[in-house]
Structure formats: structure tokens, C-alpha cells
């Protein structure tokens, strides 16, 4: 876990954030801060607004009220060009990995480079692709297509494709969903390795307590549209609050 003395500034500041869809109130005045070099886990049941929160951070949705400042920019006020530039600094690891089925692993990783970085030589592209693949331990898959990979391998390749643009912030959407227990542990280890090697700051969205405990410097427990409690894993779950206790008991009984 990260020593607090290294966390010298906030890279994401969310204050009094509200978001509704018609009569459905999803976020009801949430506050959250992500410091540089930190992993924060947003923990909660399905349908509690976790994914809505990271979509607001990435500028895919706009809040109804409140502020969401990312790398010093209020996301909701940015124009399309400014938003594109901000997104280049944010890596988004999708739940389903979002790889292009018709492309090889190499082509999937080349795509964001060719699209977003000018004047790269073929040697530059090859070097960067091979570097991130090696970082996730899957250099041997470079010429395979997604259908030839396991779920855990696809998840790793998706993370590698995100890393290729060297983002400052990583957003992980349910990184262990649908994976077997051993692969879940490997993905948890990879998330921590990414933080150490690439010096990223990350928000990890999950309902998996094992993932939360393994990867989170801090936990923010989202229930009923608000953060019920924030702190270390031990601080959050050392409580008499029945909703938190029941979430813990159910998760580990499973």
C-alpha cells in the first residue's frame, strides 16, 4: 500500500455530485478524492451507481449537480477537443476488455497508438506494443486473436492496450468479474504492479471484497447513492453498521 507521504496532490476531486435518470436517483451528493499514486476502490452492490461515477469522471456522462475535477479540469465544462485530450491521460479498463475480435493482439494494441500519436515509426510501434505486452506477461500472444485467449488473458490484453498511451489515471470497471479465483488473484496482482511500474493513480469499481482488500489503499463504500464510509479496508469493515456488515458477510459466504 502507498505511504501517505508520497501522495502529494489530488488527481480527481469529486464534490457534492448528483446524478439522476428520471425518477431514479443514482448519486446523491457524493464526495471522493483520488490522490496521486493511490488506488481507491469504489465498492458496492450491482446497480448502486459505481459505473455511473466513472462514466462521469471520463466525461461519458454529465452530472446534474456538483463538481468533478480531473487533473485540474472540471470535466463537465470541457469541449470535445479538450475532452479528447483529457481522455488520453485516462486509461479505461472495460469489464469485457473491449477488444476488437477481428484484430490480432498486436493490431489491438497498435490501434490507439496509430490513432492518437503522430510520427511514430514501425520500430517505435513494435517496441511499445511488445513492452506493454511483456509488462502483463503475454508477449507470446502477440499474433493471436481474442477468440483464442482465455478470459483472464483478454482482461490482461485490455489493460495492456490501456497502458500503451501511458495514462496518469486508470479506471478499472469490475476487473475480476467473470473470472475464476486464481485468475482473479493474478488480475489483482497486475493492478498493483501497474501502479508501481507506471506510477498510475487508479479508481477500481468492484463488488468483490477480495479484489478490494488486495488492491485498495482506500475503500469507499457506496450504498443508496452515497458513500456510507471511507477508509482502509479494516476501517470500513470494523463497524456496527448493518448494511456494511451484511455486504461483508454475504460476499465472503459466497
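^ Assign residues to that structure.
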Amino acid at each position: 500500500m502507498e505511504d501517505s507521504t508520497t501522495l502529494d496532490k489530488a488527481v480527481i476531486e469529486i464534490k457534492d455530485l448528483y446524478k439522476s435518470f428520471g425518477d431514479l436517483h443514482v448519486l446523491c451528493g457524493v464526495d471522493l478524492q483520488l490522490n496521486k499514486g493511490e488506488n481507491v476502490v469504489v465498492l458496492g452492490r450491482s446497480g448502486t451507481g459505481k459505473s455511473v461515477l466513472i462514466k462521469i469522471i471520463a466525461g461519458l456522462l454529465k452530472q446534474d449537480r456538483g463538481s468533478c475535477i480531473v487533473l485540474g479540469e472540471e470535466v463537465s465544462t470541457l469541449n470535445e477537443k479538450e475532452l479528447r485530450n483529457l481522455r488520453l491521460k485516462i486509461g479505461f479498463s472495460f469489464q469485457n476488455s473491449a477488444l476488437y475480435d477481428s484484430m490480432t493482439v498486436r493490431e489491438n494494441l497498435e490501434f490507439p497508438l496509430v490513432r492518437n500519436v503522430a510520427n511514430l515509426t514501425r520500430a517505435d510501434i513494435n517496441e511499445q506494443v511488445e513492452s506493454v505486452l511483456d509488462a502483463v506477461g503475454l508477449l507470446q500472444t502477440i499474433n493471436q486473436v481474442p477468440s483464442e485467449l482465455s478470459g483472464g488473458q483478454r482482461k490482461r490484453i485490455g489493460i495492456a492496450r490501456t497502458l500503451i498511451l501511458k495514462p496518469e489515471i486508470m479506471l478499472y470497471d469490475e476487473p475480476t468479474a467473470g473470472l475464476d479465483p486464481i485468475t482473479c488473484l493474478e488480475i489483482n496482482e497486475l493492478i498493483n504492479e501497474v501502479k508501481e511500474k507506471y506510477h498510475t493513480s487508479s479508481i477500481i469499481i468492484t463488488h468483490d471484497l477480495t479484489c478490494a482488500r488486495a488492491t485498495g489503499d482506500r475503500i469507499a463504500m457506496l450504498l443508496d447513492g452515497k458513500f456510507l464510509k471511507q477508509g482502509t479496508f479494516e476501517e470500513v469493515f470494523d463497524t456496527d453498521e448493518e448494511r456494511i456488515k451484511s455486504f461483508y458477510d454475504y460476499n465472503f459466504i459466497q
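The longest helix spans residues 181-198.
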